[in-house]
Amino acid sequence: GLDINDVENWPVEKINWVPQELKESVGRALTNRFNNFKVNLENNSG
User: What confidence category does residue 11 fall into, taking pLDDT thresholds of 50, 70 and 90?
Assistant: First the structure.
């Protein structure tokens, strides 16, 4: 099976197979995770 946390290593044909609504929810989750990471970096560096 494919690991949802390892999306960047999925083969392209598998990524294209993912339904649009799943792509959107995964994209939002990744964006939120990245934003949290960025905020934590900013908080910890100051």
Answer: confident
d(CA 40, CA 44): 6
> Can you give the pTM of this predicted structure?
0.41
Contact 8/34 with Cβ under 8 angstroms?
no
Q: And the tokens for 21?
A: 């609504």
The residues near 44 (Cβ < 8 Å, ≥ 6 apart) are none
Residues with Cβ within 8 Å of 18's Cβ and at least 6 positions away in sequence, in order, are 26
Query: What is the DSSP code (8-state) at residue 3?
Result: -
Q: What would the two tokens of residue 13 be?
A: 């044909």
DSSP three-state, residue 18: coil
Show me where the domains of the chain are located. 18-45
